[in-house]
Amino acid sequence: MQPSRLTLYGLAMVGGLGMTLMIAGASIGVVFGADLDADATHGLGLLIVVGLLLLALAIGFWLGWVRPFQRFDDINIPAEPEHH
């Protein structure tokens, strides 16, 4: 069974959102780090953790859905003639 493109697209979007949240949180922390109070610092930490969880969730679901470890090319076995 081939995974649907829509599911893969959705997982890519969730992973991309996670990376975006982590990068945005880290960037805000670097630029305004010295001027932030404790609540804002905790909020930025939470933003980075949520981004990390979204990225890990997307990777985990992708591994479970696509299962790349089950289907892979063996370079020792020649491909069929019509294989491109």
Task: Give the secondary structure arrangement, pairings included.
Layout: H1 5-32, H2 38-66
Helix pairs in contact: 1-2
Structure description:
This protein has 84 residues and is an all-alpha fold. The chain has one domain (5-66). Helices cover 68% and strands 0% of the residues. It has helices spanning 5-32, 38-66. It is elongated and about 65 Å long. The relative contact order is 0.16. The mean pLDDT is 88.
Give the overall silhouette. elongated
Helix/strand/pairing category: mainly alpha
Binned strand content: under 5%
Give the % helix: 55-70%
What's the number of helices? 2
In short:
This protein has 84 residues and is mainly α.
